[in-house]
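Closing statement on the magnesium ion sub-project.
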Amino acid sequence: MLNRSTRGNNLARSAIETALLDLQGKRLNRPVSDLLGGALHQHIPVLWTLASGDTARDIDEALSLLAQKRHCDFKLKIGSRRVMDDVRHVAAIKEAVGEQASVRVDVNQAWDETTATKGMAELQSAGIDLVEQPTPMKDLGALVRLSRKFHIPILADESIADAKDMFALAAAGFAGAVAMKIAKAGGPTRALEQATVAQAAGIGLYGGTLLEGTIGTVAALHAWSTLETLHWGTEMFGPLLMKDDIVTKPLNFHNNGVDLPAGPGLGVEIDEDKLAEYRRKDQ
Ligand SMILES: [Mg+2]
């Protein structure tokens, strides 16, 4: 009914589908992952974003997280500084962590194709593993051409929301990977449709997030757990950024990833007092 009666509004649709899956799971006494095909993984890898912009501080943070085994893959948000300033920052971090960590960048559409050609060549020789959305979301041609010019793969993010976008980009000749997000796609089911198209096209999968709290994160984890191969892992660390939560038991982040919660539905329990505390009140 939701899909027939609404267009767009993918974030709201994702929230509603998540709630319906949770209800149905509880009714059947099955986890949401069972409703989506069945979990193939109970522990899902999670990377971390190093975001201070200060090279020494980011290196310290990376080394400390590696020692704790909390994360072994790192993503850096770049694109706001001059290309070579960004490249020096990223290359220094890669050199410091060496082979023990994968270092990727997210350019967030900041480069035009010419800048991206220069930037990707430099990132490729610095040993960076993945470049997320180097060019503007609507410049599909640039993304296709860049993906064929370099062996460092491109992770398409803003350019692809759902299965149809995925099909169009793959048909245009794109090679690389896709950042799936349940909120972008319009729910866990739609995100998994997109995964199927990507798999058919030989495009690598990555579990992305709009930095949701625990509930949105868990809904995505149930979806990602059903995928045999998550080539680039996930970035489902939203809950780690929060000072407080509305669930009674936080997710268990350990061993460079997070556990899929057990139990019926989403497998998380709402703390009603916390929910009341954080509910937006009319002034
Ligand atoms: Mg991104």
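DSSP finds twelve helices and ten strands in the chain. With this model delivered, the sub-project is considered complete and its resources will be redirected to Aim 3.
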